[in-house]
Write a structure and sequence with these properties.
- This protein has 240 residues and is of the alpha/beta class.
- The radius of gyration is 17 Å and the shape is globular.
- It contains eight helices and seven strands.
- It is 42% helix and 19% strand.
- The relative contact order is 0.17.
Amino acid sequence: MPSFRQRTYEKELLDRDDIPFEDIKQNMQELDLINARLGGHAITLSGFKSLTRREPGRRQWHLAELGCGGGDNLRVIRDWAHSASLQIRLTGIDINPECISYASGEQKNHGISFIRSDYRDITFGEKPDIVFSSLFCHHFTDEELVYMLRWMKANSSSGFFINDLHRHPLAYHSIALLTRLFSRSYLVKNDAPLSVRRGFKKNDWRRLLSTAGISDYSCRWRWAFRWLITCYSHAYTKPL
């Protein structure tokens, strides 16, 4: 029985740089399905809506996602924004060339721009209105996360949000069973339960945000075993 008292820093298979394209493709497709079935996409939409509600008259938005993977989060936001008559510009950033190759090659991702880069090397001509990540933060150490939080705050004009995992034994055993029964991806079978052990508890987020100098935020638990962190740019206090 693994311990859930503290985050593990054990690397996932997806963190490697030698995973073949077809394996990445299957992994991205299954993660899209998991996000759709277990509410991950709904949480991402909720984060987007919570920030846009603060500027109700605004009709144009630019969003950038860190660790965009196959682009499924951006696609869900695009479709909702179009239904709400919002003009939306979407940028996906990922360091993995196979993820960017898959995302940019998907016809259903039309209208979305993808950049293969470490997010830390990105310099925007004009800041995106909103920066966000989904199932990305748990890949990093606490020290790396403090830098990321400051970067997201400094590089968004309206705010940023994070959708990531709650570190909990029930979440761990549930996803381990589900992926063992239904997944065809060795990456998903290995990484899904491990990612829960790399996830967060509420006190983790409070500590990380405090260390980053961020005070104006909401931290909400969402089904199934996720945290939605929403932050507002005017509260930024510490420069990079």
